[in-house]
């Protein structure tokens, strides 16, 4: 439990308008918790502080916790994770802002009043954070107490600030960036030792050689705002094909909240064929072809060409894409790619776990954003299934 000094509480109450002195802005490493393929980090909220585990999501920008009075009907929890729900009367620094809001995601929605309270991370100055105190949360399977979005401020729920924006405005973080290392796979096929770095990145600690920088594009309806971490996907090349699959004018979202590598339905069949392994996506969907984990090895790969020209290339090898536990047969692995059900592409944790990634706004000032994501091969890659 974080112990607050009176000065820290007073600062948090006034921090919407007062920034931390620049020499106090820091970089912090947060251990990543892995629970049923949901990835979260710990924060303390309120006065006295209560601990919460929040899923980090690069596909959204809103922070939310469940209201303590939310019913099982409106805030179902089938995850098996015992959620700690936020009770504003128990915090002397918590208050409602008078705004009610809703936010819709792929696969769920939240709604409720906007609250404001002190957030704390060991080693950082506390900051004042607005968030949704959810009286409706349809993410029943999420193994965490709530969620915080790491996308761009433009899509934050009405009346809230994204966490990175709030921390930057109040001078808590050294730089407008973060880095993700998901950790190693242990003998139980779960991730351990992961770190989310906020205010800086740790590529010197985790990256074997170099980083591939991918520019992020503006994607709102008139093309003037950044929304999520999205870039151009120009090509896909499997190691069993001489020619790359061209995907002109297609975009891809890098999303820590997704457990899939999804490509458009128009592309997914050709992607499987390009691997040269005899895998057929139609047969996989019909349960007529099972992929076994011993087929996932470094003898084959897929290369994604990012950027307008497709010159920002990232290669993933078969052993990096193995996901054991497919229930169809003992020793089976989950299919590495799936159709998106539409003409879009989402690259989630199956890709991100195999790499170290840095995510940089370029500035805390939205008018000066110049965002990019960089990917690097890990110094110590432990193939899935190894001890």
TrEMBL record:
One of its GO terms (molecular function) is aspartic-type endopeptidase activity. The keyword Ribonucleoprotein does not apply. One of its GO terms (biological process) is proteolysis. Pfam families: Asp (PF00026). Gene3D superfamilies: Acid Proteases. One of its GO terms (cellular component) is fungal-type vacuole. Residues 1-19 form the signal peptide. Keywords: Signal. Residues 39-370 form the Peptidase A1 domain. Belongs to the peptidase A1 family. This is Peptidase A1 domain-containing protein. It comes from Gibberella intermedia (Bulb rot disease fungus).
